[in-house]
Structure prediction request, 972 residues.
Amino acid sequence: MTLLEVNDLHVTYAGDPDVEAVRGVSFTLEEGETLGIVGESGCGKTTLAQAIMGALPDNGRITGGEIIFDGQDITHLSNRERREIRWEQMSMISQSAMNSLDPVYRVKDQIKEAIQEHRDASDAESYERARELMELVGLDPDRVEDYPHQLSGGMRQRVIIAMSLALDPDLIIADEPTTALDVIIQEQILYRIKELQRELGNSMVMVTHDISVVAETCDSMVVMYGGELMESGNVDEIFNNAHHPYTLGLQNAFPSVEGEKRDLTSIPGSPPDLSEPLQGCPFASRCPFAAPVCEEEVPVQEPVDGHRVRCHEPVPFEQIRDRSGEDETWLSQNKV
Amino acid sequence: MGLKEFVTRRIIQIVVLYFAIATMLFFLFRAAPGDPLAAYIGTGFTQEQAAQIRATFGLDQPVHVQYWKYMTNLVTFNFGLSYITGDPVWGIIQDRIWNTLVLMGTSVVLAYLIGVPFGAYLAWNRGTKRERFGVVFALISRSAPVFWTGLLGIWIFSFKLGWLPAGSMSQPGVTYSSKLAQFTSPSFLRHLILPALVQAFYFYSLPALLMRNSMLEVMNEDFVDFAELKGISDFAVMLKHAARNALLPIVTAFAVAAGFAVGGSVVLETVFAWPGLGREMVRAVIANDYPVAQATFLILAGLVLVANFLADLAYGYLDPRITYD
Amino acid sequence: MSDQNTTAFDSESAPDARDTELSTWRERQVDAWRRRLAFLKREPMGLAGILIMLAIILVAIFAPVIAPYEPTETDYGNSLAPPSAEHPLGTDNAGRDIFSQLVFGARPALQIGLLSAVSVAFVGMNVGLIAGYYGGYVDDALMRLVDFAYGIPFTPFIIVLVALWEPSKWTIVGAIALLLWRQTARVVRSHVLNLKEKPFVKSARTVGASDRRIIYRHIAPNVLPLVFLYGSFAIAWAILAEASISYLGFGDPTAVTWGQMLQSAQQSQALARDAWWWFTMPGMAIMLTVISAFLIGRGYEEQLNPELQEP
Prediction:
């Protein structure tokens, strides 16, 4: 069953000038599934996550499209109505999770607060649940008595993860949950998140700039660039059969322990300025395969069932795939 | 460093500071031009009589002997004898200490009760006209001298409306079984309200503006956003998370506030003819009654130091991150 | 903001500036003034404060011209007269014109207020600079001194000092300055501690600049805005202190001051006699002067945002 449906969503930040950070994004998320949203910083993925959660900053507004969660249109809900969904059905792990704990309250009190806001639980019940949750994320349950400053960064992150599970929500949105941690902890936490998801059956949206994280934890994924989705589909499908030049470029840019040793290639250039309206494909200026037709409206193609690509494919796909494996293609920016 | 070491260290610091202040005071009075007993020893006194009077007050001794006596006496709360009445100073002012404490204590508490929520309100309404006006109003309150607002208060509430007494602490001729009985009597409370409110009105702007600044800083913190994410209501977030964290610096400021309140008692008590330390000090200074003036000053200074110390303790208690080092 | 100031001051303070540098220095000055005016427009509070203060300063300077009567001129036949055409703010119990007293009262208030503030700023800034820059024993000793100053209750101390010596303007200024510098010193010191670590100080040291030069040519200019801020507050505190002193009767007996007017009013039973013009006006004057100083400081503070504290 489709848990989350996002249709042609547009999100704009009011300002001088206005910035449209999300420009017509559409995707669906099934129950029990994990969706990865991957892209560079500034592509709009955090905004997208915040919009779904209803946690946009004061100057952010949904200016088009809709978000349908569990059959309900939540796009324009008031703050009060949102509060009822928040945490109980949808929770969020934000990037700065380590600073998300109030320094003057103990961990157990902060977990208790989350629980008692939405449920009629007694102090004793909440305490028990808090201990349960700590165990769930691999922390010593006695540490619920601690204050945040007595825990390390990684532990605090896990507390936040534990808290996001407190009410067994249907959907958890994780925005770069492991970026601020060191690599070893990252591994542990990602593994743990995956385990928990299997155990508890919640759905998850994982926002990250690290495509390998998506490979490890997600079932389906979308690639975001310049506020739009470049490619979306099943993770295996996209990894083995990526069609969009940007996706291919991203895959090159991340190290992999397996496979043959090769140099990393990064994509030269930088993301577009989102305060300007864009014509055509946002990636065109950095794409080695771009042709004049890319300046115009870009259609979404569907080469394989469930796998969508927003690209004109001015050059036959096989060439794109082969050529993007070569560093030359990216570094010289020779339009093929 | 644990609590015990911290407390010991602070107490030693305070004692040293106190004795430094006492020493300064001693030499200040000695260094002043004129004879302390000049007003007292009129032209009618003979040399021997004058000498005898000086001897009574120990003024014929060399300075370092006087100093030593002075300091050792301090420890036993022996402040000497009044130049005017010849009575032991401690007896005169003992009562007054409570009168001042109750008045100043009430004003400070009122000031904080008004100021802190007001400050939180201002911060929560950041950028609005309401906030602007609020800040200006707080500044106006702080610019109006206490003796002026006191006079206006007396005029309006006592002379014009007849609701409250025009000053002093109690009705003449009434006696009470104990200090406590006196302080809880309705008559006392009627006398207390106006001066306490007047002082609180002058004072509330400090906690208000401090709280506002503190809240503004805290409101930007991630954990405030997170609390909202958890679905907690705006009001609860403001109270439980923002305000609670913002209060920490307010507590330390309390020490400074108490210091000012104590000092301000000289003016407030004079306006309202309140029989406290402040008024006593002013009278003693005017009458050149040095021992009384010294004693009242020292006690006022002592109260400030104690307030500072209590504020340190309170802060350490409130902020779990502090480990007393 | 401090870095901008640094470069501006660095080249403008160079005594061997060439002509080409001079023209850019002039341009920089013009630009600095332009920025200051722009800031004023943004902060109506600061602007209001400055205007009020200027008005009061003018009143003080032109007092003999503005006041219709001599402040001490008595007229017993006309005592406690309510405001009228002859006496716009009425008279006191000796028939003296309230308005004239008010106008002349601005002089001691401003003299003491401004003088005290300047002394406080000067002493506080220097103590803060030296303590912050040198650290170690110097810092410890100076900070003990600051602690000591904080331990002494403000108004009582001034009373004692003024009563023991003579109640002249200078004693009052001295007494106020003797304590009020404490806050400026603390604040400047912590700012200096911060600035000490910045690259421009380190490079000055590497170049071999003397301590004195580093402190006064490089660090001090960056600390000036803070000093100005606390200096404005000091004006307010000083005026209030002076008013309290004269209200209590320790002021300069030869001068007409607002505080003293209120004392006379209370002692002459003005309250019972409903002579509202006598006891409302002086307080208003004090309040207006003090708030103008606060507004100036507040307007500036919005730009700097340090913690707002009592001295």
About this structure: The two ends of chain C are 25 Å apart (CA to CA). Confidence is low (pLDDT under 50) at residues 1-22, 306-311 of chain C. Chain C touches chain B through 51 residues (CB under 8 Å). The CA atoms of residues 83 and 90 of chain C lie 4 Å apart.
